[in-house]
Amino acid sequence: MNDSPVRATWRRKKRERQQENLPELNLGISSLGQMLEKLGRESARLHDSFDMDHVLNFAFTAHHLYFDWVRRVGQDEMKARQAAMPPDAKAVLDVMRDIANGSKHAILNRDLDKIVVRRFEQDRIQDWHDYFFAPPGVVTFGMPEDPHDYVASVRDLAPTVLAYLRWVIEGPPHPAPETQRQALLSFKQQSPKP
């Protein structure tokens, strides 16, 4: 739906008036730093458990931190770092977006061309080791300009996601996203996708 400039201004002002009357709804998380700390706690839970809820909570938090919090309340330097992220870093954060949106909405009907996840498996058991030790939430996803699939659990992607978001939010001295490229290559499958 394309609104006229007058209609768009009216909608924005109405939304601002409505927000002025809202009670405090943030449950103790009111800054990017606090949200980043929450993501760190979600990551720790992900590593200590085989519960799919922790996989989803990590994806929800990462997605909203990157796609909502930084864009809406981030400082200009944060937004500049977010815009400067290389395509493979953005693809990993798009994986979190796809898991969060796919789990949260009954039907995905918007931005279907942006989806990078090709398959999401709650449990991937291929042998006895996997039966006892494999983490839940294995995702197969694609990277820009690469014909290969990448396969990793959300638990395995968590350190990379945290590193990217720390760099966006806190900046140096955290390493730039390019330093995470080697970690991503470990998830690359040997044969290109058909």
- Give the termini distance in whole angstroms: 37 Å
Q: Tell me about the largest β-sheet.
A: 4 strands, antiparallel
Order of helical and strand elements = HHHHHEHEEHHE
Q: For the largest beta sheet, what order do the strands appear in spatially?
A: 1-2-3-4
- Shape type: globular
User: Radius of gyration in whole Å, from Cα?
Assistant: 18 Å
What is the residue-mean pLDDT, rounded to a whole number?
Answer: 82
Label the structural class. alpha+beta
Tally the beta strands. 4
Helicity level = 55-70%
The number of helical runs is 8
Proportion of residues in β-strands: 5-15%
* Number of separate structural domains: 1
Flag low-confidence runs.
Answer: none
Note down, in words, how this protein is organized.
The chain has 194 residues and is α+β, with helices and mostly antiparallel strands. It has one domain. The chain has eight helices and four strands. It has helices at 5-20, 32-48, 52-73, 76-83, 87-104, 128-133, 154-170, 181-185, and strands at residues 117-121, 138-142, 148-153, 188-192. The chain has a four-stranded antiparallel beta sheet with strand order 1-2-3-4. The chain is globular. It starts with a helix and ends with a strand. The mean pLDDT is 82.
